[in-house]
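I'd like us to work through together how a protein chain folds, taking it slowly. To get us started, please write out a protein record for me. Label the sequence line and the structure token line clearly, so we can match residues to local backbone shapes. Once you have written the record down, we can walk along the chain together.
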Amino acid sequence: MINNLSMLTAGTQRARNLEPGSYIQPGKSVTDEFVQRAVMITEKIESVLDNMLEFTEDDTRMHIVSFIEVAHTTILKINRMLDENHERLEQIVTHADTLHDPVAISFATIRRRIRSGCHRCRSLCGKG
């Protein structure tokens, strides 16, 4: 029966060459590597379980239920408001499409005036 299996692992370019007649030193054993990984996995599982326990505490459950109730009430109110104002909202959207062109023209006019004003300012200051 094999008690301790050792693994050969890759070295680095900076490692010194072995002297003639010397032996390659073993790395971690397979069991050591396995145990190390098992411990890491166990710690992660423990953390997940701790979080699950925290979520199942009475206070936390009550906060979650309360949040869901408030969210549900809010959604119902928003739906009711949308239903009550459906026609008005459609009118606003329709008029917004017709306002787009005049607003765009106004912004273009403002932009031109600002640029021409900046150009005049630069030429007066001797920087243009």
